[in-house]
Amino acid sequence: MAPVDSAVPLWQRVGRTAGLSGSVGQPRQAGVRQESRGVRQHRVQVMGRAGAGGLRCPAEEPVPGPRGGRGARRCREPVGPGRPVLALPRLSRVPRGQPAGLRERGTAASDRPSPRAGHTRQEQGDVVVPLTPQPNPPEPPDPLSMLRESPFPSQVLVALDYLAQGLLAPSFWAVNSLLDLQQTTEERRQQRMRCSHCCSCARRALAGLVYVAVLLLMLPLTVPGLLLWLPVQAARRPFAYQHTVGPAPAEPWDLRQRRTFTILSANVCLLPSGLAKFSNLGRTSQRAAYLARHLAPASPEPAGTRAGLVQPWHSQANCYGGTHSSWASSATVEVPVEAAELVPEPLVLSEHFPADADVICLQEVFDASAAAILCQRLGGSFPHIIHGVGGQGLQEGCLKLLNSGLLLASRYQPLAAQYHGFPNGAREDALAAKGLLTVQVLLGLVRGRRVVGYISCTHLQAPAADGAIRDAQLTLVLQWLGQFRREQEQPGDVVAFDVFCGDLNFDNCSRGDKLNQRHQLFEEYWDPCRQGPGQDVPWAIGTLLNYKKIYEEPVSTPEKMKRTLSQPAGRQQFLAGPILSNGDPDPAATSAWQGRRVDYILYRPPPTAALLRTEVAGFSVITQLATRSDHLPVSLRLHVAPTPS
Length: 645
Hints:
Blueprint: H1 10-17, E1 30-33, H2 37-46, E2 49-50, E3 55-56, E4 60-64, E5 70-75, E6 86-87, E7 120-124, H3 155-179, H4 185-194, H5 197-217, H6 219-234, E8 240-244, E9 259-270, H7 273-276, H8 284-295, E10 313-316, E11 319-321, H9 337-342, E12 349-350, E13 359-365, H10 368-378, E14 384-387, E15 393-395, E16 398-400, E17 407-410, E18 414-421, E19 435-446, E20 449-459, H11 467-488, E21 494-503, H12 514-517, H13 521-524, E22 530-532, E23 535-536, H14 558-565, H15 568-574, E24 599-603, E25 612-622, E26 634-642
Parallel strand pairs: 9-13, 12-25, 20-21
Antiparallel strand pairs: 1-18, 2-3, 4-5, 5-6, 7-8, 8-14, 9-26, 10-11, 13-17, 14-17, 15-16, 18-19, 19-20, 21-24, 22-23, 25-26
């Protein structure tokens, strides 16, 4: 008989015994499902019906609840196929800012606890709360009671993790500081202005000796710390969920009205500073603070209601772009009139992040301090954040020193989330737990039916020569995406959008990426920047910068970078160009290339019979992270409207 985890609440153990999730010791899949306020109301509406016919119970009797309270209502007469119908107590609407627990009608407002605004609680792992009742299910708990700040199921493991990290901290600091002695091109330029090259080399050599000495002295602590850290990580859940009490929820969905959603994806290269130096970047904590400050405006606007930064632009058949709205002034492109007539500015470029982003998907958030900064500062604008995705330690026989680096922030509440790790990472990428994060969010309710959206984020194998590995990972991604939708979609669900994004580490212009360009993924998900394998639309632009030139004056600010990349000569100088299969530059590439576009946002077109249709309202390549990342963020705006009769 399997041992019982005393740290797991009784309702979770009962639910797992009933088949609602994997086993306690080793869950079948790493996922989390949460029940939102709107969904609890939806359950009350639909659970009084029987089957698809919608028959109601002709007679009900109360069922005593726990602790003498009022429980569910049970039908005294068979309905539909002859089985009683179990219905929950009637619930009143729960406003934002109050606990989302079950409440009876008539409860006095003074009896309802009110958490203070901005209070943050977290949930981690593979807990599953069923949205459809099982026969005689246990009383569901208040979802807020499940939100734990700790990523571990018990306080003992929390203490052991702190102890292991404390033992490893001196060695980690020494190694990171040693790697951080590398100089970025900007640091090298500033150093030459302050002192001689010989003086700089002497200082770094002396500092390197000190760091090596500290590393050797700390080995007696490092070895037991590592031996303790490895088994503790094996008990860690695959991701953390942070919920912050924020603004009031959006109004109920009206299928007659068009809604707009904006999704942002960015590779932010937030590695420990020493590792970031390999990408000519540093100052990880400062870059994380800058990123959070510009992703979370001081006065966020309601999700899906604002016109946004990216507007559609139609100039020819099957071609559109995006530009700014009036909330911030656009930079003037300083080019002669004659040149402007010959080389129009690509309207897809934008200097700022969209202020009305509904979902943000980040890659390469590897540094723990950077992730903490993002969670803290984004929480006010994005009440739901999934972070710390992917396990560390020994995973499937491989040592993972870094997690997946994925972080997802949403204005809408997740109903379910799942993480899958890639089993075929190779070379340096094998040290990171790269994989796929898939989330189902609740967008609203219509006549008792859930309106949901699907967001998926990934980061594929990086080395250019590993096209076959990326191809296998794309196949797994396609399989996992379909499996997640089949498992989470309920009868009657209305799907507003299904978006897949991330850093795929291949482009649509290089001869070396032909294998990945023809993958079946692009038959199920549509890329708005793509015309076909090896051919992009005319306005598409690369998202991978030449990392050795990111500090040069023409691209040193968002405004200057936008102005520079608006010209073919600027793109050829500062964007990474087409490559061969071994990663070398392609000598046969034409001079008119637009750069390597490795950051994608794709969406799945809805079926013809769907109640809602999804249309692209605009696409934007953003220069906000000039000098702070070697990638350009991308955003996609979608119009979701009722399908014409």
